[in-house]
Structures are given as C-alpha cells and as structure tokens.
Amino acid sequence: MILESLVINNFGVYRGRQEAVLAPVDERKPIVLFGGLNGGGKTTLLDAVQLALYGQKARCAGRGRLAYRDYLRAMINRDADPAEGAAIELRFRRAVDGEMKYYRVTRSWRDTPRDIVDRMEVHTDAALDKELSEHWDEFIEGYIPSGIAHLFFFDAEQIKELAEGEHAAEILGTAVHSLLGLDLVDRLETDLIVLERRKRAESRSAEETERIQQAQQELEQAQQLLEEARFARGARVNELERQAKEVELAEGRFRQEGGELYLTRKELEAERGRLKADLIHAEMDLRELSTGAAPLLLIPALLEETEALAREELEAHKAHVLASALEDRDSEVVVRLKKLKLPPPYLKTVVDLLTEDRRQRNAAKRNVVLADANGHLAAELRHLRTAVLPEVRRNIELKLETVASLQERLTRLDLELARVPTAEAIAGLQGDLERARKRWQERQGALAAQDEKIRLLERQVEDAERRLKRELGEGVESEVDREHVARVLKHSARMRDTLGKFRVAVIRKHTERLERLILEAFHHLLRKRSLVTGLVIDPTTFRIELTGGDRKPLPFERLSAGERQLLATSILWGLARASGRLLPTIIDTPLGRLDSSHRRHLLERYFPVASHQVILLSTDEEIDETSLHHLKRYVGRSYELRFEEQTRSTKINSGYFWDYETAR
User: Fold this and answer.
1) HSE-up (13 A, CA, CB side) for residue 92
2) Residue 7: beta bridge partners?
3) List of long-range contacts for 153-156, beta carbons under 8 Å, 24+ apart
C-alpha cells in the first residue's frame, strides 16, 4: 500500500483546501517529512488519515470523549461556514491479485440546524464504487484492521506509554489479539456465555427469571458506570497533563525573570554573611602570620649573608683561642730548651720557627664582625632560613589563596544578589505560578478521587457478577426438564475451556516469533547486544521479561529513559513486521523525549527502514538542522506546516524549516 496524497478542506486548523503529495519519490527516499511547531496541525494530519480510513472507529487524538458527530462538528474550521462543512480526501494504491488498484476515499460533513450530515464515497480507478462505499468498513477491516492501525500510525504518547511500562502489557496484548484474529475467539466465548445465561434463564420460574434479570441489569449498570468512570479518568489525565504544561510554562517565565533567585535571596544573603565572616577571620589569620617571622621573608639574601658572617666570626674566635694556646705552649718550650742548655744558635732557630708559625696563624685570623654573637647564631640562622621561613611562606600562600577564593565567591554572590528582582517585579509571576501549581494539585486530587471511584466501581462490578452467577447457578437441577439445558451448559463450558487453551496455545506459538522480531529490532536500534540478550513475552499476561548480558533478569526500570523508548519503538516495529502487511508508517512527534545519541539511532537505523513509506510529523527541535543533515538523503518530500496569525490557520508549504535542497 502506498498513500498517494491527502487533501483536507476546512479541517481543524486548516482553512480552505490544502493538499500534500505523500508518495515517495523513489525507493531510496521513503521518507516524507512534515515540520510544524506545537499546535501547528501535525496531529491533525494524522487524525485526518485515520478518520478517512476508519471513520467512527478512528483513534483520533483530538476526539477524547466526544461522540463521533460532536467530534466532526468540532473539527470544522472555526472560521469556515458550518453549512459548507469540512472534507478529507485520501488517495492510495495497493496491489490486488497482482493488479495495481487506485482508490480515492472521501469523507465530507456539514453542520445543519438539525444534525451533522456526513457523506462517504470511494472511487476505484477513478470511477465511483457504490458497493465499496456502502461496505467500506468491512473492506478496510479486512485489509488493515482498526485494532492494529496503531502499529503503523502512532505518536509519542503511545511510545511514552510503552516506555513507561505501565500499560505496555495491555497495549501488547491488544495488538497480539488483533494480529492473530483472537477477537473472533473472544466474541465466540462471549456468545457462549450469553447462550449459557439464556439456557439457564429458560429453566427458571418467573420469580427466578426476574431475579436474574435484575442481577443482569445491576451488572450492566455497574459496568456502564465503570466504563464512564474510566472515560472520565482519561479526561482527568488529559487535564492534569495540560495543567502540568501550564505549570512548566509558568515556571519557565518565573525562572526567566529571576524568580528562582528571588526565592533563594535569603539563602544567598545568609551565605554572603558566612563568607564575609570567613573572610574577616582569614584576614585576621593573615595579619597574625605577618607579626611573626614573616617580615624576614623580605630579606633572604641579608639573612644568608648574616649566617656566613656568623660562621666567619665563629672561625675567628676559634683561631684567637688557638693563638693564645700556642703562645703559652711556645713560651713553655723555650723555657724548657733553655733549661736543657740548648746551644744559642739552635735555640734562636727554634724561637724563630715558633714565632713565624704564630705570625702566619695570626695573619689568617679574621676580625670579629658581630658583637656579642654566640656560637649557636649560625645554626639558628640556618634553621630559620631552611625550616621556619619556608613553613611561614606556605602558610601565608595558603591563607592568601583562601582570602582570594572567599573574595571571588563574594563577588559572584554580590552579582547574583544584584540580579535578584524586587518583590513588586516578581509578585505577578509568582502568583501565576502558585495558582498554576494549586490547579495542578487540584487536578491530581481529582485524578486520585477518580481512581478511588474506579476501584469502588470495580468492586461493585465484581459483586454484581458474583450475584448474577449465584442466581444463574441456583436451581439448575430442578425437576423441570434440565437434561437438555445441562447438556448445552456442559458442552458450552467445555467449548469455552477449549477456546481458552486454544488462545494460549496460539499466542504461545506466535509470541516466539514476535520475541525474536522485537529483540532483533532492539539490537538493530541500539547496537548494544550485551545490554539485553533475551526477551520473553508471557502468553497470559503479555508482560515482557528481559535478560541482561550477565544472563540474569533485567528489570524494565534498570534501562535508561532513552533505552526504554528505543525498546518501545522496537515493540511497535516488531509487531508491524509480525503483521506481514506492507503498510506505510506515520509517526507523530517521533523524537519527543530522546537525548541526542538515541535520536541519532532512530534517525539512522529506524526511520529509513521502518517501511517502504515513512511519514514523519516533527517539530524543529526534534529534527533540527543537525538531525536533518543525517536524514536528508532518505527524504524524498518535505513540507512545512506554517500557522499564520492573520488567518488563524495553517498552510502546507513545500520545504522544511531550513533551506536544504534535498529536503524540498
């Protein structure tokens, strides 16, 4: 199947007739890219395609709880004439028995004083096909069942639900049932239950029948109330999400105007006081360091010279003491030599030698330089230079760094305090934010109350079902010809049991292939086979169980947000491949919650091969200039959905947000 073109007329934000050619240029460029800002009409295009194909069964995002006719009325462009109405025309081609057939499906409606008047026509090969127009619902259900349409036409919200895991089993179970045609089995089982109830009712007395009917009515009323409550819950969820967006916008405006700084101003002022006190203490410590030996750091050369002089004085003092000792020794030697009556020539020679030795020693003796210097002065000066002063220097440098750091932090803090807006300037935005948060809390409370109501109604339904079963079970063996009824009930019960086993067997058989396809898709997207090595789908609950690279169970929550989204995309891709249908893929908001690395995985490994025809509805932040650079070789056509304030409507223009030749 190839979607050829889409024509919309006065539909939603599109005023007048707008047309987009959807057929790929060639098989190498399967992507048709639509770019639009939020609220610009991207989701409306997806709704238009589904509405053209499925009519009342279409899962349109903008419908919510609206009845079909109310939805059609709401989707007529607000500036268009309701009597003129709106229309959607979808052209596509598909091969039938080896022959290519061309179809044009047109749905149009207008609002009259009495009611919405809608019309549906199908042209086959340019000729009106009345029979196909009358039986289109059966035709399209046979080709693309509405139960599996969401596998090919989906948006970021569906990816989100699958990625969060909360509704993954429910979505997967619904898709598998539709793929395998098990809805027929479910209908048959329901018909058998109805048959059993009718047969039991036939054998009842009037009083018993009345009690059964009453129990049946109570059950139906409880089920209806439960269904309405679940619909209402969906509306509450939508309201909560809308309010959450309002809170996000209000927080953004508040933050942009310096609101966060305003809220933290007391903390900033307290921090400034602490820093100021720390700075004062640090400066006092620095002054205390300066009162000790620190000034001597200014005269390192003088200290070194003084130490040298102290050593010289010590040596001079030693020489003086030695000279006195030698003079006493020489005098004693001369006296002894005289007593020994040494001849005068020899005595004179000895005296001369001793005198010359003392003279030479006295010539080498230094003068005293430092007055009253003790013998320890040189050692003390050396200790001062090599140990005390370096430690003082280190302490001063550390303290100076502390002072500089505190001064820098004080400067930054002063700048932040200078940016704090006044209370008058921020009051309005703060009020808006508080009101938005209060409304969000109220929506949360309403949702919690609705959940509690649903739980109560579920218990009421269970009680009503038990009462009905009790009424149906009483008196079956009465005397009024029960054999036939018993036989029918017996075989019906066996048949339902067989259908249950058949359902499980069919699901188990096909889930093995589905598991393989999903795991292959995940490995292809992530290219990280060691992360998840196994994937198993429970055929009863449809819960997905993962096995990690260590061969141990890998909880869904252990995956990162991006990995969960890639797994959700893999689930949809695997289901689409399992369907065996060659259908186009339409993805609304395809990269909404992914980081840059995981976005590139989808851009390069999924979109180009997701189908033979891929239609992407994106914002400029999802597929930006960088993303478009990676994707453009696969893009055959591109359009920009430009909302014009003057006409309050959206126009479909050729091209994209940026001027890329290959993206036109």
Assistant:
1) 17
2) 19, 89
3) 153/46, 153/49, 153/50, 153/585, 153/586, 154/572, 154/586, 154/587, 154/588, 155/43, 155/46, 155/61, 155/587, 155/588, 155/589, 156/588, 156/589, 156/590, 156/592, 156/593
pLDDT tens-digit map of 83-137: 899 999 999 998 888 888 999 999 999 988 888 889 999 999 989 999 999 989 8
State how beta strands 532-537 and 153-155 pair.
unpaired
Q: How far apart are CA 504 and CA 539, in angstroms?
A: 6
605: exposed, middle or buried (Cβ count in 10 Å: 0-12, 13-18, 19+): middle
Q: What secondary structure letter does DSSP report for 63?
A: T
SS (H, E, C) 557-596: HHCCHHHHHHHHHHHHHHHHHHHCCCCCEEEECCCCCCCH
How many other CB atoms are there within 10 angstroms of residue 282's CB atom?
20
CA torsion 120→124→125→128, rounded to 10°? Answer: -60
**Confidence tier at 203 by pLDDT (50, 70, 90):** low
Q: What is the pTM of this model?
A: 0.55
H-run or E-run covering 160: helix 156-164
Contact 642, 651 (CB under 8 A): yes
Q: What is the DSSP string of 64-120?
A: TT--HHHHHHHTB-TTS-TTT-EEEEEEEEEEETTEEEEEEEEEEEEE-SS-EEEEE
Q: Which tokens belong to 577?
A: 């491949």
**What is the pLDDT confidence band of residue 202, given thresholds at 50, 70 and 90?**
low
Q: Inform me whether the pLDDT recorded for 664 exceeds 90.
A: no
Burial of 321 (0-12, 13-18, 19+ CB in 10 A): exposed
Enter the tokens of residue 632: 């453009």
Question: Quick one: which H or E segment has residue 122?
Answer: strand 116-124
Q: Where are the beta strands (DSSP E) in 131-212?
A: 153-155
How many residues in total does the chain contain?
A: 664
pLDDT at 378 over 80: no
Chain-centroid distance, C-alpha 631 = 22
Angle at CA of residue 634, ends 632 and 635, nearest 5°: 65
- Assess whether pLDDT exceeds 70 at residue 626: yes
Cα gap 555→547, rounded to integer Å = 8
Give the H/E segment covering residue 37: none
Q: Is the dihedral of CA 70, 71, 77, 78 positive or negative?
A: positive
Return the domain boundaries, the chain: 267-419
